[in-house]
Amino acid sequence: MCKRSANIRHRTLQTPVLATCSCSFPQLIIPYQARMLCDHRVNRHVRHLVSSFTRSPCSIWILDPSRASSSRFTYPQSSGTSSLVHSSSIEQRQLHRSSRNTAARPLQVLPPFCMMSSLAPLTHGTESTSPEADAATWPEEDLSSTTGCHGGFYPARLGELFEERYVIVRKLGYGGFSTVWLARDIREKQHVAIKVLSAFATKQAESCQLAEIAVCDTLQRECASSLDPGAGNVVRPLDAFTFESAAGKHFCIVTEPFSYSMSTLCDMLTGRQLPLKRIMKWLKDTLLGLRFLHERCHIIHSDLKPQNFLLKICSPGRTIERELITRPSLIYDFPKDIPPSDLGCCPVQSLPLPFTIDDDDRTVSFDTVIADFGHCHFEDKQMSTIVQPIALRAPEVALGLKWGKEIDIWSLGCLMYEFATGAWLFHPEKGGKSDALQRHLAQIRQRTGADIPRHMLEASPYKERVIDVLVTGPALHSVEDVINASNVSFSSIEELEPFVSTMRTFLRVDPTERPTAGEALEQINWDVWN
């Protein structure tokens, strides 16, 4: 072990964060507490994720808030010792995270213990000057936001009891309308995940502007009675309940716990690329889940994106127990001299669960489920004409036409390309003199090589903007050209043709020509991918 390796002995690892930096390797930032683990434990923490999907190097940063500095070593090492390099402070380094709907925006890296001085105005009852200031102050979800500001998050406490059976033991993550918590079900003696909707999201669901409550009821009923194997490829509700807080009513969904999203997994890999065999394994799981949703539940997901696919945890009991011991839950730090009577809310740090306990097991299963049904629609009750993230939006949705379950199949084609190349298939939001709709249609023609059917253009409420309009702009290569030219990961060259062929069937511009999930399961030769 090199001299500086000893400085990181006994550090307790927390959630890795990808840093997009101008360097040759992807940067994996790992904060730590005052206690420490030696660097080979850091290696073990990411070894399975890195080695299972790529053999390329990955720079791993170990954040030290106490010394305002950081250390780095490269995985895999070229020798038996870590290549550890000391660096200047990384807390102040601005990172960039991409958004499908907006341009990349700077994101500040937060240390494990966020000093409560920045939170004090909110936790001590001082009114903030603007929603923007509120959102920038809280380390994760904005706990000061109200229902009127599309917020109303509930600040669950570690050790808090719900429904006289669920004890909160860890925070797993948060989103725009909810937080997710790991809890111990003391009645069934097992761990569960609880998704707590914000007061705003609950109000929207109860007024039928969001279908999540009705979808939860349908999934709970159908999963319990169906023998369809696809029921195991969607997040299955085990229980549901509501409670009141100062912000309003909160609807809660209890499910089994899951690990990282596909988005987080890709962030950990060089180039954000998955091997074709892994992509096809994800595709089979997803098609099974969609067949169940479409044919059995008559539900259209309409929001399929990398963040909404979760990895199943291998040996969940052992994995969770070890996680709670080796990476205990943390709250963001606060001044110790605050009297208990004045102590406000202490935000809890999100710590997602790994999907395997055995870092050395290269044969671990790679199983995924479809998650997040907040934007789902029933086939006979569509509550919006515009759905899907813009970069994954099907042409019929972009044109404002009637849409159905075929839009989920289109999204799969876009995601196959993204997982293989590490890049989006379409960028309709990027500038130019033409509007976003015209750019999107032009990119669809360029990527697929197919014209938009005349009957679709004629039926569109936007036909004056798109019909007979020649959109100029940078030429895009076809799907085949990019896949063949990209450094995609495959075991055999024979994998490329069936992969591209499957993707093309999902990207047929006319929705009536796309296969259903059930048809795709039958048409694909899965033996190629075993």
UniProtKB/TrEMBL annotation:
It is an enzyme of class 2 (transferase). ATP binds at K195. It catalyses: L-threonyl-[protein] + ATP = O-phospho-L-threonyl-[protein] + ADP + H(+); L-seryl-[protein] + ATP = O-phospho-L-seryl-[protein] + ADP + H(+). Residues 166-530 form the Protein kinase domain. It comes from the Eukaryota. InterPro entries: Kinase-like_dom_sf, Prot_kinase_dom, Protein_kinase_ATP_BS, Ser/Thr_kinase_AS, SRPK. This is non-specific serine/threonine protein kinase. It comes from Ceriporiopsis subvermispora (strain B). The lineage of its organism: Eukaryota, Fungi, Dikarya, Basidiomycota, Agaricomycotina.
